[in-house]
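hiii, so i know i said id send this last week but things got crazy w the move. better late than never?? heres the sequnce for the chain we talked about at the cafe, plus the structure i predicted for it. fair warning i was half asleep when i ran it
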Amino acid sequence: MRKKAIQNIISKLNENNSEQFISQTKSISEVYGSNTFNDDVMKKKLSKSIYNSLKQCVEGGGELTVGIANEVAHGMKEWAIEKGCTHYAHWFQPLTGATAEKHDSFLNIDNGKIIERFSGKELVKQEPDASSFPSGGLRATFEARGYTAWDPTSPAFIMDDESGKTLCIPSVFVTYTGHSLDLKSPLLKSMEALENSASKLLELFGVKEARVLSCVGPEQEYFLVDRNLAYMRQDLLVCGRTLFGARPPKGQELDDQYFGSIKERMLSFMGDVETECYKLGIPLKTRHNEVAPHQYEFAPVYEEANIATDHNQLTVEIMKKKAQKHGFLLLLHEKPFARINGSGKHINWSLNTENLNLLDPGDNPHDNLQFLTFLLASVRAFYKHSALLRASVASASNDHRLGGNEAPPAIISVFLGAGLTSVLNRIENNKLKVREFEDIINLGISKLPRISRDNTDRNRTSPLAFTGNKFEFRAVGSQQSVAIPVTVINTAVAESIDYIYEKIVNKNKSLKNFVQAVIEVLREIIPEIKPVLFEGDNYSESWVKEAKKRKLPVLVKTPESVKVFECSDSINLFEKYRVFSKIELKARCEIELERYCKTINIEAMTCIEMAKTKILPPALKYQQLLIDNVKELKNLYGKQSKTYEFIELNLLKLNTLINNLYIYIEKLEKNILKIDFDKLHKSADLCSGEILSNMEELRNSADEIEILVSDELWQLPKYFELLFID
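okay and structure toks below
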């Protein structure tokens, strides 16, 4: 079957199926936003007064009335029907980490006649059954009522596929009692909190009535594996990662995949994804090969955080559909293959007004007190709430990646670069005259131009690196929503901005000199935040020891990380800014622990089943072949031949490995029975300890068996086939 799957791939590629390799004929500008209820469409479909009123609502200065909702709903319905839609759905992001939707048709019956109608009430609110979504105890199973509410800040869009077209309305999701059941409503609250705090601080610098937005650009890494091979791997289908697989002769050692020429089949998939994304107004900018074989990346242009979150979720949905169409299985697991790089979703985060990036240092950052103030507010937030940042990216899958040689460790630190570090040192020591940052790099090639050097280099080992005008949070996992990490960043930075604001106001009262007051406050904060600043190699063992000396949180595994959501500092922070209530934080902790235990439980059971049905049978067959071979050689040649001695050595090794396999299967089965979902903390510790250790023992024996057993007998597609067959 394995060889047949490979032959199917070769045959399909040889056919050069014209449907598979689609060339894009339309320009980006022709299709961009064509399936979104965007600004241009609203101007056509809405009256001028309603359009202006809606814009005021979106920008936070107006009330969404029934009259506004009714006209918007009518215009939206007319546009959607013209585009071929028959149904609409509130599109939301429950605590599963995926998206959800319930489709309703525009069908209405009026005096026995069929009409198509969509009211403001239907636009603003929908009632999906909430009973089967994770709630962490926020409601009982029999309390099924939940509400989705329209988010007018994110444009409605049309999902267009071969099965039909549906009008999708971005929404938040809450319980009957008003508690958040989704990822988006806390994000929107954190954005509002950050805007209020940042606008207040900006006023001190003479910037009045500025609308401040947290902006995000999430880079999306992923793997593509041929479907013919992937469908033969139960672990890939059920767990999203390989639970078994011996090291191939070649992995990523030669670095020949990274930024290499994109092969035709993958490029066809990418082009198809981009076209659909452009229709939805998703500004995908970059595509390239990543470090590992069959690993790739999409990266968009910056957008407002809530829209960027929606767009990333939509991009992932589109990628899954298009992967299926192009004969691939899309892998978003953070570590689908052992011993090679995993995938992240790096969040590039910044603070912007309509005209200014508040984290842009300009030409002379040492003179730019406003930039330095917001920079230090951000760094202080990352320091004070580093444990929360770690908790925001915690998952069973991301634990495999964090700390590997392609990802930052599970210790939050900040890289600023030599230039900014020098500026901070000089401020701290009351020496403000520093060299200009603009430096020239001479490439040493006469035909190439001289280029400006950036203010900072890139430290790819750092979890949080300042990269010129933004922070890149590299610890985020590839399959998680960016909503929770961004919510944590926004709220933490809002608290730090308020802290600095109060200090500047108080200092200014005594000094009567605003500039000097700001400098004095910065000088006080720099020593406070120094423990989180690290310019070196985050992968080194010495950094772990150093981080502990600096009293930075070292939270290696998910169970110990997510408990941070329940601590008093976290509760005080989120309740102060009305982002989460105490009960909502407790619920999220419970949901994450439950998800962790269920994930490990599924993987462990898959391990056992594969070991029994996919690893042991070929091992036992090969064992019998070796036994028969030794017997035949002894009968034919007796002691005259030494050949059977080498076979016997292999046989002894195989016998030991098979024995170990049985032992580890039994140990794992016993430990799985101890998982109790009514005792989540205890079960999570069991999963992160003994069960994962048992799985690793089982895998090590199975991988050695794979190397010994005849290739003809091995059923599972091997690593070199999954990673190198195109």
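btw The chain is about 50% helix and 15% strand. thought thatd interest u
miss u guys!!
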